[in-house]
Amino acid sequence: MDELIVDYRGHEDLGLTTKTFVAHVEWDPETELYVGIVPGITGAHTQGETLDELRENLKEVLALCFGE
Predict the structure, then answer these.
(1) Is the pLDDT of residue 60 over 60?
(2) How many Å apart are CA 52 and CA 50, to the nearest integer?
(3) Tell me, what DSSP letter sits at residue 3?
């Protein structure tokens, strides 16, 4: 299992600053997608065709998890 660093910047009006999360990443040969999960944050998981797409998708998922 590899790791991916995700820098997430929350909305300033909510008092959130940039936070760095470490996502666990695996390649799924069946779907041919990278699958990522941020441990400790319920619901923070997604997939992407590339690592860049996975990182962006994880940022979107974190926004949803934090109610933004």
Answers:
(1) yes
(2) 5
(3) E
Count of residues in the chain = 68
Q: Is the dihedral of CA 6, 17, 39, 57 positive or negative?
A: negative
Question: What pTM value is reported for the model?
Answer: 0.82
**Could you tell me which of 62, 68, 67, 65 has the C-alpha nearest to residue 8?**
62
Tokens of 13: 């009006």
DSSP code string of 5-60: EEEEE--GGGT--EEEEEEEEEEETTTTEEEEE-TTSTT-EEEESSHHHHHHHHHH
